[in-house]
Amino acid sequence: MPFLKISLSHSELPEESCQRLKREGSAILAEETGKSIDFVMVALDFSNCFCFGGDSSLPTAYLEVKNVGSLAPSVTAALSGRLCELLEDELSMSARRIYLEFQESERHLWGWNGKTFA
User: Fold this and answer.
1) Which in 61, 68, 81, 112 has the greatest CB count within 10 A?
2) Which of 3-7, 9-13, 75-79 has the lowest mean pLDDT?
3) Which residues 6+ apart lie within 8 Å of 50 measured at CB?
4) What angle do CA 8, 2, 97 make, to 5 degrees?
5) Is the pLDDT of residue 88 over 90?
6) CATH code assigned at 97
7) How confident is the model at residue 4 (pLDDT cuts 50, 70, 90)?
8) pLDDT above 90 for 10
């Protein structure tokens, strides 16, 4: 596992944009964490009612990255840059309107396939 949730203020996106965000987000997460893409999950969440900097009229995103194990500062910096670039390229969204949150989990606190990663 790592897991990426992309919460967007958009009500919907064209299917090709959804596919690219999931595909490229998966690749970025696998590359930067050094984990197999076979364990990467990406979720898109639409129609969030965001207000950022007092303005709710502009496109906004909140990204959550969760990982079993630690995330070094160099990894979170690279993920922040690459994921913001992905949203800028695909959605023409300013990186100034994107927050990212990184979370580390212990192996016994994350489950898959009927067991935990411990």
Assistant:
1) 61
2) 9-13
3) 9, 56, 60, 61, 62
4) 25
5) yes
6) 3.30.429.10
7) very high
8) no
Distance of CA 39 to the CA centre of its chain: 14
CA dist 5 and 103 (Å) reads 12
Q: CA 82, CA 23: separation in Å to the nearest integer?
A: 13
Residue 48: predicted pLDDT: 80
Percent of the chain at pLDDT exceeding 90:
91
Domain range for residue 102?
Answer: 2-116
* b/e map 50-87, b = 16+ CB within 10 Å: bebeeeeeebbbbbbbbbbeebeeebbeebbebbbebb
Q: How many domains does the chain have?
A: 1
Instruction: Give the span between the Cα atoms of 87 and 104, in whole angstroms.
Output: 23
- Give the C-alpha separation, 83 to 99, whole Å: 10
User: Which residues share a beta bridge with 9?
Assistant: none
| CB neighbourhood size of 100 (10 A) | 18
